[in-house]
Amino acid sequence: MKYTNKHNIPDEVIRALENDSYSKGDADISATGLLQPPQIRILNNEHEDEITTDVSDRIWILLGTSVHNILEKANEGNPDVLTEQRMYATVDGFKISGQTDTISLKEKILKDFKVTSAWSVISARKDGKPEWEQQLNIYAWLYKQNNDEDIKQLQIIAICRDWNKNQMLRSGGDYPKSPVAVIPVNLWTEEEQLEFIRERIQLHKQSDLMFEFNGTIPPCTAQERWKKPDTWRVLRKGRKSALRVLPTEEDAKAYIENQDESNLSIEFAKGESLRCKNYCDVAPFCNQYKQEMRND
Fold first, then answer.
1. Which position among 16, 69, 153, 163 has the lowest Cβ density within 10 Å, counted as fewest Cβ atoms?
2. Mean residue pLDDT across the chain
């Protein structure tokens, strides 16, 4: 990966980013790799030396790495805590790996630390985060294979990088009460964990074969692209903002029919793929995204 520096961030920060030592170890794929859309993983591998990103877009990754390093050092020598342990297992000919943050050996609680936003905590508590649940259940399955012991609980320890005391006092309710929030994660059965791992392995195997034989890659789903839904905006002449934003054209037409105004119109608003637009390093090499941009 090549870095640009549009905002003149100091060299010390750039060197820290370039010194990232992450590795999936001696494995075909990591737990996080299994969860990636195949298209992103394949394009990352194919264009590794061409990918360019700005330093400013990687600062939160650096902060997350720093937190993990501090926690690892703080727990060194503690016999009751297993820290930053990479584990391996082979499933259907695929060797997978996963590195846990900490495991409380007495209570058998697997904990994963996330440096994230307060909004992510609110969203996770309300609706859950499937990718967090999937990741931690893969780790729990790997732990069982390597230690012949069951994990009893899964937890996300969220460190809110944007937590604000005044916001907490004003908002109350769902807003995190402190910068650190503990989020329980649903623990699957061992059978459910293995079934999910096999499904993901099969998906990646098939995608690799398609790419090898005819150069095609399965497209990312709307969910994987973080695509917002298409909407229809009801507009009034002379007003900048929409009167109503509705999920279908039929709803928009029905709304207009029930109004006593004649100067209303309907405008289609295509839902953006937020991951592609703002958070995907391989978007410049992705034919699916290029086609989507042409269709806008």
1. 69
2. 92
